[in-house]
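Notes taken during the Thursday session

The instructor put the following on the board and asked us to keep it in front of us for the whole hour. The protein is Glyoxalase. We were told not to look anything up and to reason only from what is written here. First, the residues (135 in total):
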Amino acid sequence: MIGKIFVNLPVRDLDKSMTFFKAIGFSFNPQFTDKTAACMVMSDDIYAMLLTHPKIKQFTKKQVADAHETTEVLTALSVESKAKVHEMADAATRAGGKEAREPQDYGFMFGRSFEDPDGHIWEVFWMDPAHVQKG
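Then, after some discussion, the predicted structure tokens were revealed:
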């Protein structure tokens, strides 16, 4: 069983990215944060390491993708209510992000997507627990 997940994301301006993600409700672990990387805490078991381009190049020989031009990953975050979906997505746009697509409403599931300042797409969604239990 996997214990925790650390998603590593390249960012051009670490301070700008940290300011953006603080504005939508995330915190940072100072123990794993410096001028080249920041450990963003999304939950007790989910983290994103925001890495400057020179820092991420220490871990890969591949070219760093420009998320404004290509999509390598869509990060989906489950929240407890439709209201929380709106709260997070609205905070993201106020903080400088932009809507990635129109809201998706399937009745039992609702979601919105936004791009962060580096173009990474984040999908925030709520799913009706009663629907999940039905199978």
